[in-house]
């Protein structure tokens, strides 16, 4: 292949790296109204009165909106294809505020200072209610987080509002209890995975204006422009045809921008005032009032034969979805969906899950999306099982993991299309030095040890998300690729252009990429669920093949031949006998010249019935200080199967970045609240993401497989990368000092207390 | 949101002091890195930029460090890198990043008596004096011990007396604020053990220091005993970074390591 | 109030208010490479040079650059591009939002340190947070740029 498989630089790389204006705030009109939000100081309260009179009198205040000024139609902000499996449990502004930071009033003023002054002048009287803060007792709590009569979900996801349950689910394959009875060894453990913040560098922001036709244009740093448009239409009660959503460059997302966070506020202000408006969340708002990873309690039971064959897995997950149910059912379902298929020698599996409402910031999508939580719990238990069986933890995996061409209980009869996970484990062991280092070595005050974990994710949402792509042959022979996916910085625009260039046999520079704009781009659910390379990629391949076919047809027509008897090398269409030819440029301008002509446009739409898993084998080497409990990560090896590697440089950075985010989850990051539901970790001062000195060395390797359903054999890579560090590091810490950390993050204090208390 | 109505750059320290006392909300600006964290309504903010307080002067018997000297200045000063075993640069080098240390000042840190401060712990282990414009010159320990009327910290003085000193800290993420820090120094067999970020502000473990003092050499048992004493005599609190119980346990570990290291330097 | 400063090598007069931070002033004057990622002086995104030193513009009162030289990445495009090419070749700009502040810190380091070691590079850049790349690719680009083994 010429272009696919090459480590090509991102097409927008130099421009964004050198600070050119390309992000939402850079593009906002200078005269846009500045929006600030008055937020609830209480975790749970009913607004008795709001007095905005004083605030409205302030010169420069343009509008102040409260729950009396918004439509009374509930919606969800989850970035999911319609009909969404998330409860419609929100209003733009509600009489009931459900967490500290929930929106109470929207203030628009001519500048920030006045908006903030006005905010301070609004008087609100609250009836403070008893908040539900502990997710483990939420189902028995006397308070109902969502007592409203119009709470609604498109599907039966097991929502029981009286018990604060947003979703309940249960799946069972085979007879679990019987299978456990037959097992020689059974191990069990309960884990807690913490809420995590996305902490993308560009906070949430959006601006809006009316175009000359009076349509609402919303420019937003979002992963999901088409979902945003649909949600705005419902929330604002205006037709979607009157709304256009444009996504400029995005300063990181990690799933945070798969939930609509800020867009509604400027949109509403622009509709009410006719004026452009913008909202820029500060970091504190971003931590406090957006979304986070679902905190979970996960109980895992594993049973195996004496020879180490894993026969039964039982998982019980409880997820804290916070005040609103965005992604509540889907995230917790991935705890099982992305772990149970791995170990396919099982006779029986059970997965029981609940997601509960609490009076804390809502959880939502975050890279890994439930698989991260499930991987920590299941992989930690596999490591515990290996110990109980006195087996090498890598061997038990090699013995039990699914291989390409095999099936597993949850996908009975369906064969796994591709996997190089066994090779990943072998190679990873070599790179970390497993044979020499496992389990660990005492160095006096310190101990060095290694640990491991494996994981899978998906590639797109099978049977649901469908993407389209369009490629135009422009008048002078170059191409424009139109897509609706949203490059978060990952380089997906470049990767998709590489695929188009490969099919059309043209240099990458000959393809302009435009994304994403709901008026112009073909439909795409957005970039989430590890879908862009795999799903949108396939749509691009189809579009490019369609266009290629049209070029052959049109070329044959000009050459007075038939498509079967001409060939196209990317530049020239030639008859097979070599007698006649026409250049692409000429074909292009002739296609748009004169009567009866038609511009050539290739179309492709793709949805997949499968979501082929990428795999990773992760290995951690740590040095633990025996006197302080401090864990120093020395080395991390991630061996990756993402199918064909479309762009090795961009893939490698995705892995390194995801691993470091996983290291953050493992060692530092922890969203914490006080007794009243106030977020304590509301800044980078108190919520520590890994810095450059924290990460040790990271080695990334690829063991390519070929996924038959993917573009050029590719699968996904965006999410799977975050899953292994937490269980692998926890395992290494156990091998170092014998302390089994079951509650993330692994702080020095927990390790120390485990050793000495 | 903080606000400032007026900004002045006085030409003399006396003028600065006069303005400071013209109104209760008038404030001397330090590096202003933490200004945005609060919601102070300042009538007149006083910038000391014109008062030549931004240098480190090495004299025969002391270092004179102006209030406006930044942490980065401390970190990169050639003499400080070697004096006191390089403890002062060591104590500030892990604070956030270069661009932050180019902003924050010695004067504001000392004047504010921050509990999480790394620098205060290190300074307290040395023979450091603080100069207030009105309050005059006093040992740092005295300054930290009680509240003083609103004043302007102009300079600090550190005696160049060949004290052997070591700074140790425990952080989780390496650019985080410390869970606990300690500085231990020794001059002519007189020891001083300081522990900060407890999370209360830095304090001298007096009894533990005395325990060691006067001995020509220290045995591992002496060191262990003193470290234990320090952990017993000081008080510890709980915050996001750690519990009081853990801090107390870590106090003996860090102090033990620091004493051992100083002993090795002697 | 007005201040005189040398902004990207040009002597300019800036109209400011007393409590305005430099980052806001610079954006207001169209220097949109200056970004803010936190409100607590700890992400490094807003890094500019004041008299050549990398400094947090979000935490510096605009008033204080009176008479000083302020440099944003717009003022050193040639030098920045030279390094940015290497960064982009690694794919290590990713979302790009933190890149201007990061690149300015890298260039300041190049000016300040002679032949830095890997440890010194990491130390100098610790104040520049990045959530996308995991830092490794940035380090590879810097090592190539500085010729560090």
From TrEMBL, chain A:
MF GO annotations: iron ion binding; xanthine dehydrogenase activity
Organism: Desulforamulus reducens (strain ATCC BAA-1160 / DSM 100696 / MI-1) (Desulfotomaculum reducens)
Enzyme class: oxidoreductase
Keyword Oxidoreductase (UniProt): yes
Source organism superkingdom: Bacteria
Entry keyword annotation includes Oxidoreductase: yes
Residue span, Aldehyde oxidase/xanthine dehydrogenase a/b hammerhead domain: 18-130
Protein's name in the database: Xanthine dehydrogenase, molybdenum binding subunit apoprotein
UniProtKB/TrEMBL annotation, chain B:
An annotated Gene Ontology molecular function: FAD binding
Gene3D superfamilies: 3.30.465.10, CO dehydrogenase flavoprotein, C-terminal domain
Keyword set, alphabetical order: FAD, Flavoprotein, Oxidoreductase
Superkingdom per UniProt: Bacteria
InterPro entries for the chain: CO_DH_flav_C (IPR005107), CO_DH_flav_C_dom_sf (IPR036683), Diverse_Substr_Oxidored (IPR051312), FAD-bd_PCMH (IPR016166), FAD-bd_PCMH-like_sf (IPR036318), FAD-bd_PCMH_sub2 (IPR016169), Mopterin_DH_FAD-bd (IPR002346)
Coiled coil stretches, renumbered: none
Domain FAD-binding PCMH-type intervals: 1-163
Pfam entry (one): FAD_binding_5
Protein name: Molybdopterin dehydrogenase, FAD-binding protein
Automatic annotation (TrEMBL), chain C:
PANTHER family: OXIDOREDUCTASE WITH IRON-SULFUR SUBUNIT, XANTHINE DEHYDROGENASE IRON-SULFUR-BINDING SUBUNIT XDHC-RELATED
GO molecular function terms attached to this record: 2 iron, 2 sulfur cluster binding; metal ion binding; oxidoreductase activity
Organism field: Desulforamulus reducens (strain ATCC BAA-1160 / DSM 100696 / MI-1)
Phylogenetic placement of the source organism: Bacteria, Bacillati, Bacillota, Clostridia, Eubacteriales
Alphabetical list of Pfam families matching this protein: Fer2 (PF00111), Fer2_2 (PF01799)
UniProt-recorded name of the protein: (2Fe-2S)-binding domain protein
InterPro entries: 2Fe-2S-bd (IPR002888), 2Fe-2S-bd_dom_sf (IPR036884), 2Fe-2S_ferredoxin-like_sf (IPR036010), 2Fe-2S_ferredoxin-type (IPR001041), Beta-grasp_dom_sf (IPR012675), Diverse_Oxidoreductases (IPR051452)
Keywords attached to this entry: 2Fe-2S, Iron, Iron-sulfur, Metal-binding
Span of domain 2Fe-2S ferredoxin-type: 1-76
Record bears the keyword Transcription regulation: no
């Amino acid at each position: 292949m010429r272009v696919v498989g090459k480590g090509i630089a991102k097409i927008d790389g130099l421009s964004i790296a050198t600070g050119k204006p390309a992000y939402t705030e850079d593009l906002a009109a200078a005269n846009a109204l500045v929006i600030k939000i008055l937020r609830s100081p209480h975790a749970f309260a009913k607004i008795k009165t709001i007095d905005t009179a004083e605030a409205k009198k302030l010169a420069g205040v343009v509008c102040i909106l409260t729950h009396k000024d918004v439509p009374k139609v509930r919606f969800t902000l989850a970035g999911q294809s319609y009909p969404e499996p998330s409860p419609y449990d929100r209003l733009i502004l509600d009489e009931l505020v459900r967490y500290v930071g929930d929106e109470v009033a929207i203030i628009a003023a001519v500048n920030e200072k006045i908006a903030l002054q006005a905010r301070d002048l609004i008087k609100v009287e609250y009836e403070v209610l008893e908040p539900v803060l502990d997710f483990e007792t939420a189902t028995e709590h006397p308070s109902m987080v969502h007592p409203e009569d119009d709470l609604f979900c498109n599907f039966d996801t097991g929502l029981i509002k009286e018990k604060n349950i947003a979703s309940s689910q249960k799946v069972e394959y085979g007879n679990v209890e019987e299978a456990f009875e037959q097992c020689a060894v059974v191990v069990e453990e309960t884990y807690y995975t913490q809420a995590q913040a996305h902490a993308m560098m560009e906070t949430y922001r959006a601006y809006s204006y009316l175009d000359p036709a009076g349509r609402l244009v919303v420019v937003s740093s979002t992963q999901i422009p088409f979902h945003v448009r649909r949600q705005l239409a419902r929330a604002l009660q205006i037709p979607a045809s009157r709304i256009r959503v444009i996504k400029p460059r995005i300063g990181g997302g990690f799933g945070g921008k798969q939930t609509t966070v800020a867009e509604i506020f400027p949109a509403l202000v622009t509709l009410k005032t006719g004026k452009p408006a913008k909202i820029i969340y500060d970091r504190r708002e971003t931590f406090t009032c957006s979304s986070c990873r679902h905190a979970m309690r996960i109980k895992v039971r594993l049973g195996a034969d004496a020879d180490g064959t894993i026969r039964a897995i039982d998982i019980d997950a409880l997820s804290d979805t916070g005040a609103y149910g965005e992604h509540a059912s889907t995230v917790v379902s991935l705890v099982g969906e992305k772990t149970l298929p791995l170990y396919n020698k099982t006779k029986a599996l059970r997965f029981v899950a609940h997601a509960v409402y609490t009076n804390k910031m809502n959880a939502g999508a975050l890279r890994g999306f439930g698989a991260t939580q499930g991987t920590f719990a299941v992989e930690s238990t596999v490591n515990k099982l290996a110990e109980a069986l006195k087996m090498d933890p890598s061997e038990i995996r090699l013995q039990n993991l699914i291989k390409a061409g095999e099936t597993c209980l949850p996908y009975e009869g369906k064969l796994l299309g591709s996997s190089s996970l066994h090779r990943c484990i072998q190679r990873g062991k070599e790179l970390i030095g497993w044979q020499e280092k496992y389990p660990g070595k005492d160095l006096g005050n310190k101990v060095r040890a290694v640990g491991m974990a494996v994981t899978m994710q998906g590639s797109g949402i099978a049977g649901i998300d469908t993407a389209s792509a369009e490629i135009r042959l422009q008048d002078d022979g170059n191409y424009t690729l139109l897509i609706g996916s949203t490059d978060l910085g990952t380089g997906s625009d470049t990767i998709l252009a590489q695929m188009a260039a490969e099919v059309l046999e043209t240099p990458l520079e000959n393809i302009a990429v435009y994304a994403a704009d709901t008026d112009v781009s073909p439909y795409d659910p957005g970039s989430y669920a590890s879908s862009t390379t795999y799903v949108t990629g396939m749509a691009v391949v189809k579009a490019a093949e369609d266009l290629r076919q049209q070029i052959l047809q049109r070329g044959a027509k000009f050459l007075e031949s038939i498509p079967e008897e001409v060939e196209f090398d990317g530049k020239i269409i030639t008859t097979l006998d070599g007698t006649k030819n026409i250049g692409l440029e000429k074909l292009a301008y002739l296609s748009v010249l004169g009567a009866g002509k038609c511009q050539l446009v290739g179309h492709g739409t793709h949805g997949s019935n499968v979501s082929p898993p990428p795999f990773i084998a992760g290995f951690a080497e740590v040095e633990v200080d025996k006197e302080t409990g401090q864990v120093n990560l020395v080395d991390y090896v991630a061996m990756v199967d993402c199918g064909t590697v479309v762009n090795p440089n961009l893939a490698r950075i995705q892995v390194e970045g995801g691993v470091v985010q996983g290291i953050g989850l493992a060692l530092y990051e922890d969203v914490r609240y006080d007794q009243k539901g106030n977020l304590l970790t509301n800044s980078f001062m108190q919520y520590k993401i890994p810095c450059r000195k924290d990460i040790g060395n990271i080695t990334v390797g690829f063991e390519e497989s070929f996924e038959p359903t993917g573009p050029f054999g590719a699968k996904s890579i965006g999410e799977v990368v975050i899953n292994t560090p937490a269980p692998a590091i926890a395992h290494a810490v156990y091998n170092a000092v014998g302390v089994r950390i079951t509650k993330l993050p692994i702080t020095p204090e927990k390790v120390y207390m485990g050793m000495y208390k | 949101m903080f606000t400032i109505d007026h900004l002045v750059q006085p030409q003399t320290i006396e003028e600065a002091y006069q303005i400071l006392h013209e109104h209760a909300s008038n404030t001397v600006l330090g590096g202003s890195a933490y200004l945005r964290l609060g919601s102070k309504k300042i009538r007149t903010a006083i910038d000391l930029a014109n008062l030549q307080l931004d240098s480190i002067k090495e004299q025969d018997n002391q270092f004179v460090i102006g209030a406006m000297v930044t942490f980065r200045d401390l970190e990169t000063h050639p003499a400080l890198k070697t004096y006191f075993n390089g403890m002062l640069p060591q104590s500030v080098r892990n604070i956030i990043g270069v661009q932050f240390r180019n902003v924050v000042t010695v004067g504001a840190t000392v004047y504010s008596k921050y509990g999480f401060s790394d620098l205060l712990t290190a300074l307290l282990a040395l023979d450091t004096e603080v100069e207030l414009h009105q309050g005059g010159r006093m040992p740092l320990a005295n300054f930290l011990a009680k509240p003083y009327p609103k004043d302007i910290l102009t300079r600090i003085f550190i005696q160049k007396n060949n004290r052997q000193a070591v700074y140790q800290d425990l952080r989780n993420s390496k650019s985080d604020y410390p869970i606990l820090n300690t500085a231990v120094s020794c001059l002519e067999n007189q020891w001083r053990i300081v522990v900060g970020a407890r999370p209360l502000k830095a304090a001298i473990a007096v009894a533990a220091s005395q325990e060691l003092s006067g001995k020509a050499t220290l045995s591992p048992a002496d060191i262990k005993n003193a470290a234990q004493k320090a952990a017993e005599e000081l008080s510890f609190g709980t915050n996001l970074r750690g519990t009081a119980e853990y801090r107390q346990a870590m106090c003996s570990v860090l102090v033990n390591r620091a004493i051992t290291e100083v002993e090795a330097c002697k | 109030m007005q201040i005189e400063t040398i902004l990207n090598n040009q002597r300019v007069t800036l109209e400011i208010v007393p409590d305005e931070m430099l980052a806001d002033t610079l954006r207001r004057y169209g220097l949109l490479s200056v970004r803010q990622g936190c409100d607590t002086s700890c992400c490094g995104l807003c890094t500019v040079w004041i008299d050549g030193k990398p400094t947090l513009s979000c935490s510096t009162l605009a008033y204080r650059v009176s008479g000083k030289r302020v440099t944003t990445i717009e003022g050193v495009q040639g030098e920045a591009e030279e390094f940015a090419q290497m960064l982009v070749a690694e794919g290590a700009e990713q979302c790009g939002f933190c890149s201007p502040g990061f690149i300015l810190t890298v260039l300041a380091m190049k000016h300040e340190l002679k032949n830095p070691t890997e440890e010194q590079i990491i130390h100098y850049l610790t104040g520049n947070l990045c959530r996308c790349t995991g830092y490794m690719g940035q380090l590879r680009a810097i090592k190539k740029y500085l010729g560090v083994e």
